[in-house]
């Protein structure tokens, strides 16, 4: 196995773990009354929303996992959980600016600021779950020896 395929295997594993954590947090949030109100106000169907959350979590997980593997050597003394959460927050900021702001403020709702804040809270919970899960998974998957192999580009 080459380092490149090992890197992608680790990235995909991290993305699946993070995506499942993201989806689980989303599912738990979706059972609350405030989530039901939010879905009703923005006309969001429940089952498609669950599928979209899984797809979104996997996409954010892929980007976060790839970034974590590529950037962890820059700050080797930092906790992988902290690094993963920080990378996830960067993703949250991007998603908020590109998706949440336009979707909340351009749709006709009674109180767009309220729904923007609700969406922000939901996203913060989901992203935190993704970042923590990926950080712990990274710590388990990538030992010191394999971390050095990934950085040096040598074979496993």
Protein architecture, described:
Helices cover 83% and strands 0% of the residues. By secondary structure, the chain is mostly helical. It has one domain (3-151). α1 crosses α5 (112-141). The mean pLDDT is 85.
List the helices and strands and how they pair.
Blueprint (H helix, E strand, L loop, with lengths): L2 H28 L2 H9 L4 H26 L8 H27 L5 H30 L2 H9 L4
Summarize, please.
The protein is mainly alpha-helical.
Distance between the termini: 6 Å
Compute the average pLDDT. Answer: 85
Strand content: under 5%
* Form type: elongated
Q: Give the structural class.
A: mainly alpha
Largest sheet: none
The secondary-structure element order is HHHHHH
> How many separate domains make up the residues?
1
Beta-strand segment tally: 0
Helix count, DSSP H or I runs of 4 or more residues: 6
Unreliable stretches (pLDDT < 50, length at least 5) are: none
As a percent range, the share of helical residues equals over 70%
The Cα radius of gyration reads 17 Å
């Amino acid at each position: 196995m080459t380092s490149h395929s090992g890197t992608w295997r680790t990235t995909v594993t991290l993305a699946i773990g993070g995506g499942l954590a993201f989806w689980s947090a989303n599912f738990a949030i979706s059972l609350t009354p405030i989530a039901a109100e939010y879905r009703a106000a923005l006309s969001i169907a429940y089952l498609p929303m669950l599928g979209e959350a899984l797809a979104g979590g996997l996409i954010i997980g892929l980007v976060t996992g790839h970034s974590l593997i590529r950037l962890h050597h820059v700050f080797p003394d930092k906790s992988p959980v902290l690094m993963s959460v920080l990378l996830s927050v960067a993703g949250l900021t991007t998603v908020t600016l590109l998706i949440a702001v336009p979707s909340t403020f351009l749709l006709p709702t009674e109180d767009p600021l309220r729904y923007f804040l609700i969406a922000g809270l939901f996203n913060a919970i989901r992203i935190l779950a993704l970042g923590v899960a990926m950080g712990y998974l990274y710590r388990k998957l990538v030992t010191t020896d394999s971390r050095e192999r990934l950085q040096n580009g040598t074979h496993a």
